[in-house]
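Each letter names a residue; the fold follows as tokens. Both lines appear below:
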Amino acid sequence: MSTVRYRLVSELARPGEQFDVPEDVDPVVEPCERQGYVRVTYLKPVTAVPIEDDADPAYLR
């Protein structure tokens, strides 16, 4: 099993619109039911951030 985790990202975009896609990723571009848009879907790698204090925050108590 891989230790790399991914988040599935799916966005609606209009022609000429720009957004960040990770390097070495080939997004899937599909027609959308909404006229003038396309759906862009890709996997984005995520990094786990260790939290040393596992206690519930005071506002949850």
About this structure: The first strand starts at residue 5 and ends at 13. The beta strands are 5-13, 28-31, 38-46. The radius of gyration is 17 Å. Residues 4 and 45 are 7 Å apart (CA to CA).
